[in-house]
Amino acid sequence: MNIYVGNMPYSMSEDDLRNLFGTYGGVSSARLVMDRDTGRAKGFGFVEMDNAGEAQAAIEAINGTKQGGRELVVNEARPREERPRREGGSRGGFGGGRRF
Can the keyword RNA-binding be found in this entry's annotation (predicted)? Predict the structure, then answer.
């Protein structure tokens, strides 16, 4: 089961996340979402647990608890929604792509 963890303190590491959920069962992965530009954590992440019962117990136990002064938001992750691509993409520059 894939679990969303939000409102995390920015100081929290993937190991901290793995250890927090590991007390409730086997964690197959723990991943923080990082800002592409700064390389810093965005304050949310995902944990994968293979056993649905253990995952549900972890969600119920951890949701609303405080870590680093912040109240965690924990629930089953929803599938990622496709977003429309932005014009211009990652080509850089400022404008319409015309060459002189």
Answer: yes
